[in-house]
Amino acid sequence: MIRLIKIFTVIFFFAFFSNAFTQSNSAAPVKWATWILLQAVPSPSFFDDRNDADARLRFGFRWDVTPLNYSFNANKLVSPVQMFFVNPVRRYGGSVELFVQPEWMTGNYKYSDLSRFHLNTGVRGFLPLAERGERLAVSAGGLYKFREDKSGNNNDTYAVELGAYTFFGMLGFKFDYYFKGQNKFDFSISIKYF
Questions:
Q1: What is the helix (H) or strand (E) element at residue 30, kind and residue range?
Q2: Is 51 helix (H, G, I), strand (E, B) or coil?
Q3: pLDDT at residue 14 above 60?
Q4: Which CATH number is 2-191 given?
């Protein structure tokens, strides 16, 4: 778990220091500080907790970090690549991105004996369905979920993710299906501020 926290911390600080102070605009540090505070607001999530005899949903939180996004809908005068601070029109108008998702459960897993902290990383693509993705967009992706049981043993798994987003991408619903382990799914209400 310490390894996962270190990875997330390095990615987070790289995002801030690589872009916040390289801008010629004096308002850049304020822009990035505001953005970081808004990204700290988590999305509510529900996680499958099961064993051979019993099952229930566990409540937790998920954060979304996008280290790299490539937009297919970018204006020809600007780069199609954005890092961390991604314009929602470019994301939901059609793009592919790398992502990192830290997850934290508010309570212990009772049946599956997993630790409360997980870290996902993967690739997802967005397709606009209505109003260039501002009214409705969908996503599909693959991810790798780093997780441990309470004894510290590796319980990692691959998963697929499906999502639907509306209201300019600020509200969405995501569903993950795991390929390994007794836990088979989680879903979240994606809340994204820009």
A1: helix 28-39
A2: coil
A3: no
A4: 2.40.160
Residue entry with tokens 């390994």: 180
d(CA 36, CA 17): 12
For the chain, the maximum distance between any two Cα atoms, rounded to a whole number of angstroms, is: 60
**Scanning the structure block, which residue is given the tokens 């509306």?**
166
Radius of gyration of the chain (CA): 17
Closest CA to 128 of 120, 138, 117, 118: 138
pLDDT digits (tens, 9 = 90+) for 161-173: 999 998 877 788 9
Residue with tokens 């809908």: 73
Coil, strand, or helix at residue 48?
strand
For position 20, what pLDDT does the model report?
47
Q: Does residue 21 surpass a pLDDT of 50?
A: no
The three-class DSSP label of residue 190 is strand
Pick from 5, 125, 19, 107: which is nearest to 61 by CA? 107
Q: At 102, which helix (H) or strand (E)?
A: strand 95-105
pLDDT exceeds cutoff 90 at 194: no
Q: Write down the residue that tokens 């961390």 correspond to.
A: 84
103 vs 23: which has the higher pLDDT: 103
Those residues whose C-beta lies under 8 Å from the C-beta of residue 178, and which sit 6 or more positions away, are 145, 157, 158, 159, 184, 185
